[in-house]
Please model this.
Amino acid sequence: MFYNSTRNSNVRVTSAEAIARGISSDGGLFVPETIPELSLDEIVSLGGMSYAERAAFVFSKYLTDFTEAEIRLCTESAYNTKNFETESIAELAHLFDGTYMLELWHGPTCAFKDMALQILPYFLTTSAKKMKLDKKIVILVATSGDTGKAALEGFRDVEGTSILVFYPEDGVSAMQKRQMKTQEGDNVGVCALKGNFDDCQNGVKAIFTDSDVKEQLDKNGMMFSSANSINWGRLVPQIVYYISAYAELVKDGDINAGEKINIVVPTGNFGNILAACYAKHMGVPVNKLICASNINNVLTDFINTGVYDRNRRFYATVSPSMDILISSNLERLLYLMTDRNDAVIREWFGKLASEGRYEVTDEVKKKIQDEFCAGFCNDDETKTVIHDIFEKYSYVCDTHTAVAVKVYNDYKASTGDTTRTIIASTASPYKFSPAVLEALEGKASDIDEYSKAYRLAELSGSKMPSALADLKNKPERFCDVIDKTEQKNYVLSQLGI
Ligand SMILES: *Cc1c(COP(=O)(O)O)cnc(C)c1O
Model:
């Protein structure tokens, strides 16, 4: 299996190279040359395996330059009960009639990002070894909250790597800040920046491409790599849980083998739902992929009209991990839907960069609409859903997952479709306690964030994940706050250069 760039189909690299490089030098994203197909029997037989074994099976189709032992080392190091609070790793909660919550947040940082970031460090170090890079891998991350913490936990104490995360001083929640300031590990660093998320991201990008920094890293036997969702190594682990969930439903007798399901995904950068699309193309029987957005609804408009237009107001919402106007992984979908037409991808994404807007052909729009539906909801509707689900089922879901539930309810009401449905549940409600508590109580309260989390536990009868509860007594290790002009020197000095 080889990988092409979405902006140049002649680029052809191994999976190790795609993962180690992260992004193609032409600015395109790496995608597999063909999508491997699984038979229904193969999918169903996964039901008899552990999650790590299911993952190894799927990876063996994509990472064909990895040996079986290398894949096994990666999956067993990542998907175990030391890292995840449940044996099943991705827990399938049977909640409503014919609706299932795929809880992807039982990992160390309580968001679905762990499903990929627990294994990416092993993919990356294995890839570097295979390519004989023989360098220490330095991961630089700019985060608005969830990715930074998940990357820190994934890379902490992984041999041959070090990681440095920048977050906006006033741009993350109190719980997210605590999660990062108390981070453990000998190869980690965290620093707050006076500025917003864009300042963090621009600074990191500038350092990545600074030839002086690159030379100094080179001299010291180091290289940069990326842990964000443009890296194929973050996407492929996400395909696994959709295939795994299907096998699980068949095993439990909830569906017949071959019966179609819907999959609903609360979407931001389009990585998670793209993984569901890959699972479908590999052979999982899927009726509709339902893309749920908050009021930053650029994707809803795109799927419904074929016009992608980021020239619009940006809103801060109670589902902040979906507050995004440029969904990078859409590029991979469009490459697929245009039958791998790199020229047209270059044209559209050139327009996106210069004008903030592009429009796909009617043919491509129709192909997308055959597979996808889209909807969005606002913050009030999100909170109402959290309240209603709790009243009806005594189940608490987080703000992002609630957006998916609302969009699914609307879909069901307008289509009458009763196909069994999996909803991707992307975060623990305790990561967003203030909004969730407000939804349950019907009013905001002014107690501190930890008290809110405890009140949420009391009210809901659910348990705060120990990963969050334990933070309360952990010492803060990283309290540096710097100006954005100091970012480059800070990186060099932290690396001891
Ligand atoms: C990152 C994130 C999302 C969005 O996922 P994408 O793959 O970027 O579409 C949704 N919910 C939560 C909680 C997240 O952290």
About this structure: The pocket of pyridoxal-5'-phosphate is lined by residues 111, 113, 146, 229, 266-272, 321-322, 400, 426-427 (CB under 6 Å). The domain at 96-107+241-472 is CATH 3.40.50.1100 (Rossmann fold). The first helix runs from residue 15 to 21.
